[in-house]
Amino acid sequence: MSRRNPSLSAGMLCSLLLVAGCGRATPELIARIDVALGKAGRYLAARQGPDGAWRSETYGMFRDGPSLTPYVMSSLFFLPQAGPAAVESYRKGTEYLAGFVGADGRIRVAERELLFPVYTSASASRVVCLLDRSQRNLRAQQAWLGYLRARQLNERLGWSPDDPQYGGWGFSLDIPRKCAEGQMQDFLVESNLTATVFGVAAMRSARVPLSDDGYMQVLAFVRRCQNYPQDPRIADSHFDDGGFFFIPQDAVQNKAGIAGTDRGGLVRFHSYGTMTADGVRALVRCGLGADHPRVVAARLWLERNFDAAHNPGIFEPDREVLRDATYYYWTWAVSHAFAALRVRDIATRQGRIDWAAALAAELLARQRDDGTWVNRYTDAKEDDPLVATPWAAAALVICRSSLAHQVHGQIPTLAAVQPPSGQLPWPAGQTDYGHSACASHPHTGPATASSRARGAHYGHTAALGGLPVAGGLPQPTFVEDQLGQRGFLVLAERGLAAKDVVVVLDEAVGLVSNGLQ
Questions:
Q1: So what's the pLDDT on residue 482?
Q2: Whole-number Cα distances in Å, 484 to 196, 480, 506
Q3: Which residue among 93, 143, 285, 356 is the one 20 to 30 A from 123 at the CA level?
Q4: Residue 5: is its pLDDT beyond 90?
Q5: What is the pLDDT of residue 232?
Q6: Is the pLDDT of residue 506 over 50?
Q7: Per residue in 156-179, is it b (16+ CB within 10 Å) or e — as a string?
Q8: Cβ within 8 Å of residue 202, ≥6 positions away
Q9: Residue 309 confidence class, pLDDT cut points 50, 70, 90
Q10: How far, rounded to the nearest angstrom, does the alpha carbon of residue 1 sit from its chain's CA centroid?
């Protein structure tokens, strides 16, 4: 039923399934997912322009290049089923994004040239160095990150912790400085939860340490978007359900609408699925543990209200049409949230279910023959296949990981795809990170073609060096990876129990690292 790409190592695919023990997932479902992801990846690669950018054929606002390119790449990187063409496509996209960096190390764009400055810079800073961590690409990562961080609403731009907007990111085309008292503030300046989760994910991906003040600033804003009492003794059970909404003090932009007025006279907003998934990921990205009361409350909301076919939550009657306008964003956000929380079976109102199986089945049923997904609702532009397809494909990648690995194991990436010529996917003597792989490391001994190839199957982990070898296979080593997560890197193809291996995902875009607990 499935035609797996021959460039993928058969041993690798087998080990990915066997290491975690996928007894609960049917091989037929895994095969169907692989076929679907291959079709999606080939579609995305084929829609790339000659200059390396992706441009919409549906919406003029997405025809600039920077708006869609890093977004598409954040999904494409995890679609090795699409084969070598996807690798070449990704490299061209990297060249395009790196080309925005000037000689001074700053992003060269005209004023208001980027229509989605936070989304573009956050995503670009992550994807530009995933496949090739060359000095040029790492420099581009820092340039895009600097562009992003200049737009966080904090003291540097005149905001104070007492401001509802403080700490997050918004949609402003300009630097979001606070206006002087009496002047009207552009509503796009306001921080919102979605832009903020993109921003904090970029910081983690760039290994900004958790001691950085930016994370506490983010937390200050994210807490304001959760229906959770600062003091549990004064909780209002009618409103404080642990879920999240999009933005404080803005009835228009909160899609689910106004829930009512609480005992203190404060207007409250309904919690809904997309924002609760974003909110819990933001909490985790800022360093809160899975047992933190705010994280637990958000997780329970997601479990109780989970729906594979709809964006859950209570929507006011005049907002009901907006519920599924962000359906594919919902699938992407909730899959990342459950992966970050490392849960598989969830307790819904209808009983316990395997969320990944339910979501995968729904996504497979909705995929079109050309490999795309398209939403019938237009409010969030998901009727554009270049908007809906990356969301859906990335969600399906995480579903596959959960089904095949029980949320444990490694997600394959484009780094696993070997070129048709049979040569290594990096220059001779170099790993995919650009580090020398031929010199004898003090703990590894001389690298060989076979060991480099084995490292390629596991993506970027091969280049970290210092991996002690025993029994002919690299053994786990305790390091800090590119997402700032500490853990044991896994390179061995065999001999690991399912309980030993964990997947750590960047909840905003799906970036992956590996580790042992």
A1: 35
A2: 18, 6, 10
A3: 356
A4: no
A5: 74
A6: no
A7: eeebeeebbbbbbbbbbeeebebe
A8: 121, 122, 123, 125, 126, 144, 145, 148, 508
A9: very high
A10: 29
How much is the mean pLDDT over the chain? 80
SS (HEC) of 177-212: CCCCCCCCCCHHHCEEHHHHHHHHHHHHHCCCCCCC
Q: Is 367 helix (H, G, I), strand (E, B) or coil?
A: coil
**Distance separating alpha carbons of residues 143 and 285, to the nearest angstrom:** 21
Q: State whether residue 344 is helix, strand or coil.
A: coil
Separation of alpha carbons 300 and 379, rounded Å: 28
Contact 328, 368 (CB under 8 A): no
Work out whether strand 477-480 and strand 486-489 pair parallel, antiparallel, or are unpaired.
antiparallel
Residue 500: predicted pLDDT: 32
Does an H or E element contain 490, and which?
Answer: none
Residue 311 one-letter amino acid? N
Phi-psi sector, 445: left (phi>0), alpha (psi -120 to 50), beta: left
The reported pLDDT for the residue numbered 411 is 80
What is the total residue count of the chain? 517
pLDDT in tens, 334-352: 999 999 999 989 999 999 9
CA distance 308 to 492: 35
Q: Phi/psi of residue 150, each to 5°?
A: -70, -10
| Residue 169 φ then ψ, to 5° | -125, 155
Q: Is the pLDDT of residue 183 over 90?
A: no
C-alpha separations of 442 from 438, 471, 479, 503 in Å: 12, 17, 16, 28
Mean pLDDT of 179-196: 91
Question: Residue 189 is which amino acid?
Answer: V
Phi-psi category of residue 34: left, alpha or beta, with phi > 0 → left and psi -120 to 50 → alpha: alpha
Q: Which two tokens stand for residue 392?
A: 């859906």
